[in-house]
Amino acid sequence: SLSMEKKQAYLEAVKQAPHVVAAETDFLLFIPISNGDLWAAAIRLCLYWTTRKTVFGDRAFLPLTLTGRGAMDKDDILCLQGCSDVMVPKTTDGKLILFVVDR
Question: Could you tell me which residues come within 8 angstroms of residue 32 by beta carbon, excluding any fewer than 6 positions away?
């Protein structure tokens, strides 16, 4: 099983904001990204919440909205608005890559 350290942020999200977890990180969507490997999908889901907690800190369990009242504050939103998204060709294993270029 996953260590408590690796799943801690996910379990915290489920406890504090189950509606956000359900709406924004449906486990079934992690399965195809993990090539049908359920174990890899579970690891990826937990890593997502660990990263989200690192990036957003105390606001991590709020919805990802563009209102300034969710996980992203006004500075985060301004940063997104000042960037350009660039899609590059798929990797050899079919994964999409998105580069965000700061203007």
Answer: none
d(CA 17, CA 32): 25
How many residues appear in the chain?
103
Cα 35 from Cα 93, distance rounded (Å) = 10
**Tens place of pLDDT per residue across the chain (103 aa):** 889 999 999 999 999 999 999 999 999 999 999 999 999 999 999 999 999 999 899 999 999 888 888 998 888 777 777 766 555 666 777 776 666 666 5
Tokens describing residue 68: 């300034």
The H or E element that residue 11 is part of is helix 4-16
One-letter amino acid identity for 24?
Answer: E
Q: % helix / strand / coil in the chain, to the nearest 5?
A: 55, 10, 35
Q: How deeply is 33 buried, as exposed, middle or buried, from its count of CB atoms within 10 A (0-12, 13-18, 19+)?
A: middle
